[in-house]
Amino acid sequence: MHAIVDASRVFFEHLAAVGWGALGIALAFHVLKLCLRTFGWRTILAAAYPDTTVPARGVLGAYLAGVGINSIAPARGGDLVRLYLVKQRIPGSTYPTLASTLVVETLFDFVLAGAIVGWAVAEGVLPGLQVFERLPSVDWAWPFRHPRAAGLIAAALWIAAVVALLWWYEDLGALRRRIAAGFAILRTPRRYVTGVLSWQAASWVCRLASVYWFLRAFHLEPSLHNALVVQAVQSLSTLLPFSPGGIGTEQGLLLYAFRGQASTTAVLSFSVGMHIALVVVNVALGAAALVVMVRTIRWRRVMPDEEALSG
């Protein structure tokens, strides 16, 4: 936390040097990326519920609300709100099916982000496991330092998840059918490519374009190479969401990735500035979506309870 405060101070001290025009373009690409992703998710939902109309505005609102909450809450609590909100807009929908659509939605992201991270590691831009252990700001380096304890915790979490499923669902056959419905889009590869992958690929172009303009706004070298490096860092920093947006981890990795290319001050200003700008936009969009959909910005009030999750 101390490192984050210091980095924020560095950012605000250099606020006058920010390229505001480039920052505006970066945020515009970010908003466009979010909107494009909702088209792909809506296609997945429509395949899961072919006899029901899936409202585009309802999906957009639920997605933006979830993104906004995830920007300020750890452990991706916004995903629960996203599921709750979209469930209210799709008659007869269930949480197991809706949750499995989130898995389908991230398949392409997982493959592409993994490829970018693999490239960054192979190029020596990102540190190997031995270096990870020595980066104090990487908040998920703990499992590498304590692999046995981490393994036990992971096993306990899996067991708890299985027990929860068995507790909530006596009819496991019905549970399997509901989960399988969320993967229905994968049984029609052509529709998956045209209705999901195409939108997600476009969103990735906007994502990299946004990072490119953020680099320009904070006077780091704008290039496709550096945009890919930043994207690799962002993917790793949100791998285990212990902190909102993985802010501390992102700073530590960016400082390593840009070592020798830019000063510590410049990298910290870029990292914190980009994070603050994205959080402000995400929270504003999420708050607007919550107001329109549930007439409140107190997102904890719309969190589904344990009984609702079994439906």
Total strand count, please?
0
- Poorly predicted segments: 136-140
How far the N terminus sits from the C terminus, by CA atoms, comes to 39 Å
Q: Characterize the largest beta sheet: strand count, sense, and whether it forms a barrel.
A: none
Mean pLDDT: 82
Shape estimate: globular
**Estimated share of beta-strand residues:** under 5%
Instruction: Please trace the helix and strand order, writing H or E for each element.
Output: HHHHHHHHHHHHHH
Question: Count of helical segments?
Answer: 14
Which structural category do the helix and sheet elements fall into?
Answer: mainly alpha
Helix proportion:
over 70%
Count structural domains: 1
> What does the radius of gyration come to?
20 Å
Question: Could you provide a short overview of the structure?
Answer:
The chain is mainly alpha-helical and 311 residues long.
Topology:
Elements: H1 2-13, H2 20-48, H3 56-70, H4 77-89, H5 95-122, H6 129-132, H7 142-145, H8 147-168, H9 172-182, H10 189-217, H11 224-237, H12 247-257, H13 264-294, H14 306-309
Helix pairs in contact: 1-13, 2-3, 2-5, 2-10, 3-4, 3-13, 5-9, 5-11, 10-11, 11-12, 12-13
